[in-house]
Write a structure and sequence with these properties.
It is a single chain. By secondary structure, the protein is an alpha/beta fold. It has two domains: 195 residues, Rossmann fold, CATH 3.40.50; 177 residues, Rossmann fold (3-Layer(aba) Sandwich). It is 39% helix and 19% strand. The protein contains 15 helices and 17 strands.
């Protein structure tokens, strides 16, 4: 197939949307398909163009076999509202136009988290007269209202109307988790129009390995038990909880524990300034790191914190950080309710705490620091579970099956990959469905 992808983010950016799309696209190229990505010049999270790039009207390069088209956008830091919307709208217009300049695809895919990228896919699919698959990684604009970046207004009402129109315009929708699928159904999207293809474990990049003493020395971690948040330091992350936990640990004299915040985003500068003012030397900020450092850094940690603000919307979220930490065999402290908590509990790979509860965070970190063999065992369980059930290669093949069916306009044949395991007596079965089969197949899993 010839697959045209629209994504606001792409490597060398290392955030979750860029990483997921790159992992899928490289596997599709490896399977013999032609993949073109239309994206921006790399600039997140600060709106500053990365070294070696320029914000030009139109430029092309090949990234790991993927034909990559970078278009001009109005650049803005990952904070605020109006300038960010201008950034999103400028991408939509530039990307939709660029979609006319490449060879005609068999199918178009556009991925959130911001839906103006989805609208670029809608426009291009209508002009090119090809099927369109919309990938949902975030419920926008509800998510920006949830974190307080926008208030309910006529503008938000207009964005919500455009959101519903976009869902209706898609030939099929891919959601990265069951929670998103449920929310889309509440918004009136037919269930048979949605396929869940979750985030996964990329074992080629993330796998257990020895700690890197140079990285531990770089941030003066010594022999401390290190629990790290690794990802975008944004408003939704709710990382004030880390500072409060750091304050409590310092008061208790727990110099054997360090809290690390890895990454950059709209909230980092204020958090780092507050930590410095309070003398919280047990809370360490690394800033944005090159993507190639993330795996060796994870290998050098003792536990990973995955955290979001305590909001009802975030019970639908399945953070990709869970998969990366599990792939590295690191125990997880999870401050996310809902579907993510259920998965971590099922895998037995960590401790679930109430979001924004610093007392529970301190308790979980101390529990792991005081029982390191137990914490390491949690990590091993997570690795075994996620590698077995969420292999990114298998997920990429499922996605490819779906795109093939959509490109042939055979909605009745759309695959339903990776349905949740079903318990039958004392046994657990994984149910899958494939075009041409008379019924679902059952493969016995763990008992």
């Amino acid at each position: 197939m010839r697959i045209l992808l629209f994504s606001h983010y792409f490597p060398p950016e290392g955030n979750a949307p860029a990483s997921r799309l790159h992992a899928m696209a490289t596997r599709w190229v490896g399977a013999g398909h032609a993949v073109t990505v239309v994206t921006c010049v790399p600039n997140v999270p600060n709106g500053v163009v990365y070294d070696g790039y320029q914000n030009r009207l139109y430029q092309r390069e090949v990234v790991d076999g993927i034909d990559t088209v970078r278009v001009w956008t109005y650049l803005a830091a990952n904070k605020g509202t109006l300038l960010r919307i201008l950034n999103f709208v400028s991408y939509m217009l530039s990307a939709a136009f660029a979609g006319l300049l490449v060879g005609k695809p068999d199918v178009i895919v556009a991925t959130s988290p911001q839906f103006f990228c989805g609208w670029a896919g809608v426009i291009a699919s209508r002009l090119r007269r090809v099927p369109f698959v919309l990938e949902i990684r975030d419920l926008w604009p509800e998510s920006i209202v949830t974190v307080g970046a926008m208030r309910q207004s006529r503008l938000v009402a207009l964005l919500e109307w455009l959101e519903r129109k976009m869902y209706a315009a898609a030939d099929h929708i891919v959601a990265v988790g069951d929670g998103y699928r449920d929310e889309l159904c509440k918004r009136g999207v037919p269930a048979d129009k949605i396929t869940v293809i979750s985030n996964g474990v990329d074992s080629d990049v993330f796998h257990p390995q020895a700690p890197d003493p140079v990285l531990r020395q770089r941030w003066r971690l010594g022999d401390a038990f290190v629990c790290a948040y690794v990802g975008t330091v944004g408003m939704a992350s709710g990382l004030d909880v880390v500072l409060r936990a750091g304050r409590t640990l310092k008061t208790k004299g727990r110099d054997d524990i360090k809290l690390l915040i890895v990454g950059d985003g709209a909230a980092r500068a204020a958090l780092e300034r507050q930590a410095q003012e309070e003398g919280l030397d047990n809370v360490v900020f690394t800033g944005r790191l090159d993507k190639g450092l993330i795996a060796p850094l994870l290998a050098s940690l003792d536990a990973c914190l995955v955290h979001l603000m305590k909001r009802e919307l975030f019970t639908t979220v399945m953070p990709s950080k869970i998969f990366e930490a599990a792939a590295m065999a690191k125990p997880i402290i999870l401050g996310v309710r809902g579907h993510a908590a259920a998965l971590v509990a099922r895998a037995g790979c960590g401790v679930c705490i109430e979001p924004e509860n610093d007392a529970e965070l301190v308790g979980a970190v101390e529990q792991m620091a005081d029982a390191r063999p137990w914490a390491a065992d949690l990590g091993r369980r997570g690795h075994d579970f996620f590698v077995r059930h969420f292999d990114r290669g298998a997920l990429a093949r499922d996605y490819l099956d779906l795109l093939g069916a959509v490109s042939q306009r055979r909605p009745a044949d759309l695959p339903l990959p990776r349905v949740a395991p079903v318990e039958v007596g004392d046994h657990v079965f994984e149910v899958s469905s494939r075009p041409g089969m008379s019924g679902p197949s059952l493969r016995e899993g763990d008992t």
